[in-house]
Design goal:
The complex is a heterodimer of chains A (about 400) and B (about 150).
Chain A: H1 2-8, H2 11-33, H3 38-45, H4 49-57, E1 63-72, H5 79-91, E2 96-99, E3 101-102, H6 110-122, E4 127-137, E5 142-147, E6 159-161, E7 175-176, E8 179-182, E9 185-188, H7 190-198, E10 210-211, E11 217-223, H8 231-234, E12 238-242, E13 250-253, E14 256-259, H9 260-272, E15 278-279, H10 282-308, H11 314-321, H12 324-348, E16 350-351, H13 354-381, H14 392-395
Parallel strand pairs in A: 1-11, 1-12, 2-4, 2-12, 4-6, 5-8, 15-16
Antiparallel strand pairs in A: 4-5, 7-10, 8-9, 13-14
Helix pairs in contact in A: 2-10, 2-13, 5-6, 7-9, 10-11, 10-12, 10-13, 12-13
Chain B: H1 2-19, E1 21-28, E2 31-33, E3 36-37, E4 43-45, E5 49-52, E6 57-62, E7 67-71, E8 75-78, H2 79-85, E9 89-91, H3 94-108, H4 110-114, E10 122-123, H5 126-131, H6 137-146
Antiparallel strand pairs in B: 1-4, 1-6, 2-3, 2-5, 5-8, 6-7, 7-9
The chains are: A alpha/beta (about 400), B alpha+beta (about 150).
Chain lengths: ~400, ~150
C-alpha cells in the first residue's frame, strides 16, 4: 500500500501534469502575440462545442413540443388580414400570444390599421408584440433608440425587444438575453416577457445571457389559413405568430439557417421548461483537467512499468520506441471525455469547457516526452546520487 | 542543456520581437505601408517599410513606451528606424494613453456598432407591402393590345 501511495503521488507525475499546463499557457501566449496565427484563432472564434452536441442530438427523431405552437404567416402582408389572424388565434383561447412582428409606421391602409388597432384592444388573451432596440451605446451598455409597432402607445400594447445576441459578423446565435437597458430603463426580451406572463413574473431579469437550448424538439406549425381546424393545438398553449420562410428573418444557428420565430420559440422553451444550460465554472474545469491529466500520466506510466518486466520484447519496443501507449491512451481519454461531455450536456444540461481538458490531454503526452529528455540530460551530466536519480524515468531505465 | 535554454531564450525573443507594433492614431495625406494606404487604427509592425509623401503626416502610438510619435517629414524606410531617428515624441501618462486607446476602439470597432443590431422578427411596414404588390400586368397588356 505504501508503495502504491508513493508511486501514485510521485513527483514525476505532478511535474509532468503541471508542465502540460505550462505548455498550454505558452501556446496561448503565442496565439495572442503572433500575427500569423490569428487566422486560426479567428476561425475558432466562431466555434462552440455545443454546436456539435446539438447537431448530434438532432440526428434522432425529435419530440413534439406541446407547449408552444407557431403560426406561420409568411405570405400575409395586409394589416387587415394579420389582424383577422390574431383575432382567430385569440378566439381559440391560447395561454399567451407572441406576435413576432413589428407594424412599423402608419400606412395609407386606414381600414387595415383600424382593424389591427381594434383587434389589439379587444384581445382577451395576454399578448406580447415585438419591438427592436437600436443605437447601441457601448459606453453605458444601453440602447438609445427603439422601433415599435406604430400604435404601441395608443393601444397600450405589451411589447418586448427581439434583438438577438450576435455582432452581425456572421456569427451563430447561441444565446438569448433576458433584459437590456433602453436609455435608463431595463426592458425585457421577447421570450423573457412571455415567460414572465406565464410564470407570473418569476423571471430574474438581472441574470446574464443564457445559452439557447436547441434540444431535439420540434414545434407544431399551423398555416395562417387553418387556425380553427387546429384549435386543439392552440388552446392552452403559447402561440407565436411569425414568419418561418421570410429571407429577411433568417439567422445562423448551430442547426443552420433558422427563422426568427423559431429562435424565439427555442429561447422561450429554454425558459419555460427550465432547460437552461448550466456552464461549469472555469476554475472547476481547470481542476478536472488537472486530475484527468494526472490520471492519464499515471496510466501511461503504468504501461512503462509493465514493459520493464519484459525486456527486449516486441511489447517493450511498442511501448518505449513507437510511443504507441501514449497515442492509444490519448485517443481513449479524448473519446471518453467527449462522450461524458455529451452525456452531461444532453441529459443534465451541463456544459463543460471541453477545449481546455482535451488540449491538456494532448500536451500531457508531449510534456512527458520533454520531461523525459530533460531528466536524461541532467542525469547524464550529474552523478547518480543527484535528485534526478529518484525519477521514475531513471528507475525504469528509460 | 545549454542548447535547450538557448533555444528557449531565442524563442521568447522572437515572440517578443514579433509583438512590437504601433497603432496608427491619425493619418494626413499619403502614407503607405507596403504600397497600401495606412488607415487610422491599423497596427503596423516595427519592421514594416513605410513611405511618407510630401505634406503628409502620421501619428502612431507605442503601446509599450506609452508614447505618441509624430512623423511629418517626407521619408521612406522601416517604421522602427524612422521612429528611432525622430525626436517628435511625447510620453503620455498611463491613464491618458488608455483613454486615447479606448476612444479609438469605441470609434472604430465595428463589433460595438453592430452589437445586437439584428432582430429575430419580421416587419409589416410600407416596404413589405411593396414586395408583395400585385402589378396589373394583364390589364397593362390588354391596354397595349387595344391600342
Amino acid at each position: 500500500m505504501k508503495k502504491f501511495i508513493r508511486y501514485f503521488f510521485h513527483i514525476d507525475h505532478v511535474i509532468i501534469t503541471l508542465f502540460a499546463f505550462v505548455l498550454l499557457a505558452l501556446f496561448n501566449f503565442m496565439v495572442i502575440n503572433i500575427d500569423f496565427l490569428n487566422p486560426i484563432s479567428r476561425a475558432l472564434d466562431n466555434f462552440s462545442i455545443t454546436d456539435m452536441f446539438f447537431e448530434a442530438e438532432h440526428s434522432d427523431k425529435p419530440e413534439e413540443c406541446d407547449l408552444i405552437t407557431i403560426v406561420d404567416m409568411t405570405d400575409l402582408y395586409e394589416r387587415g388580414d394579420i389582424a383577422e389572424l390574431i383575432r382567430e388565434v385569440d378566439a381559440c383561447e391560447p395561454l399567451c400570444i407572441g406576435v413576432d412582428l413589428i407594424f412599423e409606421g402608419v400606412r395609407d391602409d386606414n381600414v387595415g390599421n383600424e382593424m389591427l388597432e381594434h383587434t389589439i384592444s379587444d384581445l382577451k388573451s395576454p399578448a406580447v408584440f415585438a419591438n427592436k432596440l437600436t443605437e447601441y451605446n457601448s459606453t453605458n451598455n444601453s440602447f438609445q433608440g427603439i422601433v415599435r409597432t406604430y400604435c404601441a402607445d395608443n393601444c397600450k400594447i405589451t411589447d418586448a425587444y427581439t434583438n438577438v445576441t450576435n455582432d452581425m459578423m456572421g456569427s451563430c446565435i447561441r444565446e438569448f438575453s433576458l433584459a437590456r437597458l433602453y436609455k435608463d430603463d431595463t426592458v425585457a426580451s421577447f421570450p423573457a416577457m412571455i415567460a414572465g406572463i406565464i410564470d407570473n413574473n418569476s423571471i430574474n431579469y438581472g441574470e446574464e445571457d443564457q445559452l439557447i437550448n436547441y434540444g431535439n424538439v420540434d414545434f407544431r406549425v399551423i398555416p395562417y389559413d387553418s387556425i380553427f381546424d387546429n384549435r386543439n393545438l392552440i388552446e392552452g398553449s403559447v402561440v407565436i405568430i411569425g414568419t418561418l420562410n421570410e429571407e429577411r428573418d433568417m439567422h445562423n444557428t448551430p442547426l443552420g439557417k433558422m427563422s426568427g420565430a423559431k429562435i424565439q420559440a427555442y429561447s422561450l422553451l429554454t425558459l419555460l421548461e427550465h432547460r437552461q444550460v448550466h456552464q461549469i465554472p472555469d476554475i472547476i474545469c481547470w481542476i478536472i483537467a488537472f486530475l484527468l491529466c494526472y490520471l492519464l500520466e499515471i496510466s501511461i506510466d503504468i504501461f512503462y512499468q509493465i514493459s520493464k518486466a519484459h525486456p527486449n520484447s516486441v511489447f517493450q519496443t511498442f511501448v518505449r520506441e513507437a510511443n504507441i501507449v501514449s497515442i492509444v491512451f490519448l485517443f481513449v481519454f479524448e473519446v471518453l471525455a467527449c462522450w461524458v461531455f455529451y452525456i452531461l450536456f444532453v441529459k443534465e444540461n451541463v456544459l463543460m469547457s471541453g477545449g481546455v481538458i482535451l488540449a491538456t490531454f494532448v500536451l500531457t503526452c508531449e510534456a512527458r516526452d520533454i520531461y523525459m529528455a530533460i531528466i536524461k540530460g541532467f542525469y547524464s551530466k550529474y552523478d547518480n546520487k543527484s535528485f534526478f536519480s529518484k525519477s521514475l524515468m531513471i528507475e525504469n531505465n528509460l | 542543456m545549454k542548447k535547450f535554454f538557448f533555444f528557449l531564450t531565442m524563442f521568447f525573443l522572437c515572440v517578443v520581437c514579433q509583438a512590437q507594433q504601433y497603432k496608427v492614431y491619425s493619418v494626413v495625406g499619403q502614407v503607405t505601408a507596403n504600397g497600401k494606404q495606412i488607415q487610422r487604427g491599423m497596427l503596423i509592425k516595427g519592421n514594416c517599410p513605410i513611405v511618407i509623401a510630401e505634406n503628409s503626416k502620421i501619428i502612431v502610438l507605442d503601446e509599450r513606451a506609452k508614447e505618441m510619435i509624430t512623423l511629418s517629414s517626407p521619408i521612406s524606410g522601416q517604421l522602427k528606424d524612422i521612429i528611432g531617428a525622430n525626436s517628435n515624441r511625447k510620453t503620455l501618462s498611463d491613464s491618458y494613453f488608455q483613454y486615447v486607446l479606448k476612444k479609438m476602439t469605441e470609434d472604430d470597432s465595428p463589433r460595438d456598432k453592430n452589437i445586437m443590431q439584428s432582430a429575430a422578427t419580421s416587419y409589416r411596414d410600407a416596404d413589405s407591402v411593396m414586395i408583395n404588390i400585385d402589378y396589373p400586368e394583364d390589364d397593362f397588356e390588354d391596354l397595349m393590345e387595344e391600342e
